[in-house]
Write a structure and sequence with these properties.
The chain has six helices and five strands, in the order αβαβαβααβαβ. By secondary structure, it is α/β, with parallel strands linked by helices. It has a domain of 80 residues: NAD(P)-binding Rossmann-like Domain (Rossmann fold). Helix 6 links the parallel strand 4 and strand 5.
């Protein structure tokens, strides 16, 4: 999905839109990488970590096998790979606490979520399909009037 320049500037110093994560290498080594693809993409992301950096894997839609290149990984001593599992996190802290925190941040204006579309809830089919087709960035809000 492509976002507008304004949306990109809310989240990152540099934005790379490419078919391959290797295109991000020109912007330097990273202290934190969040990967949701897994597979070869996760392996390439690991080679872009700064010494002591962390890569957090939150998904694996590109595959579960990660062919790591140890020679390239040794160039980032102390780098680590962690796996995020939402269901295990809920054992540590209930989702309701996180949702309360998010509501408080939104209500005070400290967090402004990107809204891609607002529509009447009767249009749920159209909005759901547009979301699946990635026709808009951000969140979908359905209004119950």
């Amino acid at each position: 999905m492509r976002r507008t320049d304004k949306q990109h500037s809310l989240f990152a110093d540099h934005v790379v839109v490419a078919e391959n994560i290797a295109a991000a290498a020109e912007f330097g080594l990273y202290h934190l990488i969040i990967d949701q693809l897994g597979g070869r993409t996760l392996a390439e992301a690991m080679t872009q970590l700064a010494p002591g950096g962390t890569c957090v894997s939150i998904g694996g839609i590109a595959g579960n096998e990660v062919p790591l290149d140890r020679a390239r990984l040794r160039q980032a001593p102390g780098a680590s790979l962690d796996f995020f599992n939402l269901f295990l996190e809920f054992r540590r802290e209930p989702a309701s606490l996180g949702l309360q925190r998010l509501v408080r941040l939104v209500s005070t204006g400290k967090l402004i979520p990107p809204l891609g579309i607002e529509a009447d809830w009767h249009e749920i089919g159209r909005v759901a399909q547009a979301l699946i087709d990635r026709q808009f960035p951000g969140k979908a809000v359905l209004l119950i009037l």
